[in-house]
Specification:
Length: 386
């Protein structure tokens, strides 16, 4: 999209209860974001941003000191203009998670105008492909600087021009890089958001990152210490099991635990009990499935409410035809063009150039209008796109 309108697929997603704005592709783990290490990474990459951008445009952009902060969806939306150019290039190998680049429309338009050597270039599909190419080059520079992450790769960039609530922003707390770029006295901002998992992976690759979570597997020394503290006997010794063979035995806190074979204790194992369950046994609970037959939730109603004041282009198409160039060049006043519609056949009603309904032409106070006679099913809309 290039004019701020919402595509039919996005409308269908919202009406289906799918939140296309603000939800990431997966949940984000609860980690502390090492902004200090990420800031050093941003300092190292900023000159490459200017080099890549100047190489594409032939201009002389200068990049100032970047900043990195841990933020969330609401805080990011407060920084953005109402319309944004959003480019998704999620990491899929080496690191997996959201990777989003955001530009104000004026910044994207400036880049496109310089690349295409035209004034005030429109943010059409061609312009979005230019921005996608820039983000692809930028991501390649990041991957090069993170060569210690084996096989690091990302999805091809997908650029859109949309209202900011429609952007798929990483969920929860995430890392936001802000790069100020200046050209001819005008300052622009390049925002880059990565999910907390990706941010932590980058920081770890650079020697930082959040500390490892407590817990994990106990080694022999830890288990021996625990046994002594619990009043047990030192580990070691052999005991004859019920199968007539020597078995290692571990005694902790007065409880004896013996090896297992085929799911059964070798020689009779006594397991300590807690709350009616043997200690160490998993606590199995039944899976609770959501009710799929209910109506829309309050969150889904809020999703559609975000786009109620967005303008959409609606057109009525009487018919189409194909002509050879020589026939088009030979057209003049009085030329009759035969369309592919029969007289009296319903006309097509399109929203944002996507067919959604059919209708019949009517006259309302000397103006043409159309009366809706049929709403196309989702399957029919898909078939019309082929």
């Amino acid at each position: 999209m290039s004019d701020g309108t919402i595509s039919q697929s996005e409308i269908d997603a919202l009406l289906s209860g799918v939140d296309v704005g603000g939800l990431s592709s997966g949940p984000s783990s609860n980690v502390n974001i090492d902004t200090a290490t990420l800031n050093k990474f941003a300092d190292g990459i900023k000159d490459k941003i200017a080099s890549n951008l100047n190489g594409m445009t032939g201009a002389s952009f200068e990049v100032g000191a970047p900043s990195v902060e841990a933020t969330d969806r609401d805080q990011l939306l407060a920084k953005l203009p109402e319309m944004v150019v959003a480019v998704m290039a999620d990491f899929n190998t080496g690191l997996k998670g959201d990777h989003l680049v955001l530009l104000a429309p004026e910044f994207a338009q400036k880049i496109t105008s310089l690349v295409n050597k035209e004034e005030n270039a429109e943010l059409d599909d061609m312009a979005l492909s230019v921005i996608g190419e820039f983000v692809s080059t930028h991501t390649g520079s990041e991957i090069t600087d993170l060569s210690s992450i084996a096989g690091l790769a990302s999805n091809p960039p997908e650029a859109t021009h949309v209202p900011k609530p429609m952007v798929r922003i990483p969920q929860g707390t995430f890392a936001l890089f802000s790069y100020p770029l200046t050209l001819e006295g005008q300052t622009y901002t390049l925002w880059e958001a990565v999910s907390s998992d990706v941010a932590d992976g980058i920081a770890r690759a650079l020697g930082g990152g959040s500390p490892e979570p407590a817990g994990g597997t106990l080694n022999a020394a830890d288990m021996a210490s625990m046994a002594n503290l619990a009043g047990g006997q030192p580990m070691g010794g052999m005991q004859m099991g019920g199968m007539g063979m020597a078995q290692p035995q571990m005694q902790m806190g007065g409880f004896q635990q013996q090896p297992m074979m085929g799911g059964m204790p070798m020689g009779g194992m006594q397991m300590p009990m807690m709350g009616g369950m043997p200690m160490g046994m998993p606590n199995v609970q039944a899976v609770q499935y959501p009710n799929l037959a209910g109506g829309p939730t309050s969150q889904e109603q809020g999703n559609i409410g975000l786009i109620m004041d967005v303008n959409m282009e609606m057109t009525v198409e009487l018919g189409r035809t194909k002509k050879q160039i020589k026939d088009i060049l030979g057209m003049g006043e009085g030329t009759i063009i035969e369309l592919d519609k029969l007289a009296g056949e319903p006309v097509d009603i399109l929203v944002n150039h996507k067919p959604i309904a059919k209708g019949e032409v009517v006259v309302i106070d000397e103006n043409f209008g159309v009366r809706v006679t049929e709403i196309l099913s989702p399957m029919e809309r898909v078939s019309d796109l082929r």
